[in-house]
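re the bet — no i am not wrong, look at it urself. input seq straight from the record:
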Amino acid sequence: MADVVVHVGRDRANEVGWFPGEVMVNPGDTLCWGSFQGDVVVSFVPNSPFKSGNQAVKARKGSLSPSETIRDVEGEMQFTCEVALGGGPAVKLSYGVIIRRN
């Protein structure tokens, strides 16, 4: 099991995104987000990749969100999301979180 940290920020074109881009995790891994550029809200609607069922995670500028455990799925599933940074509007990302089974 892995502990995965995703960093949210703005690129040189001032576009919101996260790094490393598409996040690939396994069931049982933990996942959290953070940013040094502002508060972060990551929303997964309509489906959550988390065991808890939480559809949103939040982190204050300079800190990490609480870790969420990735739920078990059949095969491989992709979860898309919206990200808001620094109180700005939510941006829908074309990539998201992919759960795969090893």
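see?? The first strand starts at residue 3 and ends at 10. told u. also The chain has a mean pLDDT of 88. so pay up
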